[in-house]
Amino acid sequence: MVNVKPVTLYDVAEYAGVSYQTVSRVVNQASHVSAKTREKVEAAMAELNYIPNRVAQQLAGKQSLLIGVATSSLALHAPSQIVAAIKSRADQLGASVVVSMVERSGVEACKAAVHNLLAQRVSGLIINYPLDDQDAIAVEAACTNVPALFLDVSDQTPINSIIFSHEDGTRLGVEHLVALGHQQIALLAGPLSSVSARLRLAGWHKYLTRNQFSR
């Protein structure tokens, strides 16, 4: 097997006919580089398929925002779509994303994924993994001083989170189906290991009962 050497800044500099420092300025988006020189360097990077060493840049204090995402298995539809959306928005903002899947069930596995991301010196964390209140608090503590945002926790958990009202969602769904005259209403809530799925199920039970349906 041929061991292909990664392209370095020196390789790009030689190919573009500029200095190493000039290439470094372009990579780090410094303002004092002419448009013509920047285009020449960027063309060289594209031609050589240069991939920036993000860890090295960060150690040098020149890394743009690096977001770490700890997530349930990407083999599942919802987590994969969420990560894709995060990556798309991060690209628009000029940020980078690194992903660590939670390989096993349980809070310790989630902490392990978080530690993996922290080792890569992420600027912030997004945690898309179902966690009950105490487990979520424990994972937040494991994030040390890195800001973390949770996506699959209860809205009562005292941590930073972004969630929508599952109760309102199921209420609107049940009321809409009842208004259409449906008598048998089922719910595909998702796995019961998911906090969001359990909240959807609870809302569904509540509004079926309120509309005098048995569950």
Topology, element by element:
Layout: H1 9-16, H2 20-27, H3 35-48, H4 54-59, E1 66-71, H5 77-93, E2 96-101, H6 107-118, E3 124-128, H7 133-142, E4 148-150, H8 166-179, H9 195-210
Parallel strand pairs: 1-2, 1-3, 3-4
- Give the strand content: 5-15%
CATH homologous superfamily identity of the largest domain: Response regulator
Structural class based on helices, strands and sheet pairing = alpha/beta
Strand order of the largest sheet: 2-1-3-4
CATH class descriptor of the largest domain: Alpha Beta
Q: How much helix is in the residues?
A: 40-55%
- The count of strands amounts to 4
Strand and helix order: HHHHEHEHEHEHH
Task: Give the termini separation.
Answer: 61 Å
User: Mind telling me which CATH architecture of the largest domain this is?
Assistant: 3-Layer(aba) Sandwich
Mean pLDDT: 84
Q: How many structural domains? A: 3
Helix count equals: 9
Cα-based radius of gyration, to the nearest Å:
24 Å
Main sheet record: 4 strands, parallel
- List unreliable stretches of 5+ residues: none
Inertia-based shape: elongated
What is the CATH topology classification name of the largest domain? Rossmann fold
Please, could you describe this protein's structure?
Keywords: DNA-binding, Transcription, Transcription regulation. This is Lactose operon repressor. InterPro entries: HTH_LacI, Lambda_DNA-bd_dom_sf, Peripla_BP/Lac1_sug-bd_dom, Peripla_BP_I. GO terms for molecular function: DNA-binding transcription factor activity; transcription cis-regulatory region binding. The chain is of the alpha/beta class and 215 residues long. It folds into three domains: 52 residues, lambda repressor-like DNA-binding domains (434 Repressor (Amino-terminal Domain), Orthogonal Bundle); 85 residues, 3-Layer(aba) Sandwich (Rossmann fold), CATH 3.40.50.2300; 46 residues, no CATH class. 49% of the residues lie in helices and 9% in strands. It contains nine helices and four strands, in the order H-H-H-H-E-H-E-H-E-H-E-H-H. Strands 2-1-3-4 form a four-stranded parallel beta sheet. The protein starts with 8 loop residues before the first helix and ends in a 5-residue tail after the last helix. The model has no long low-confidence stretch (mean pLDDT 84).
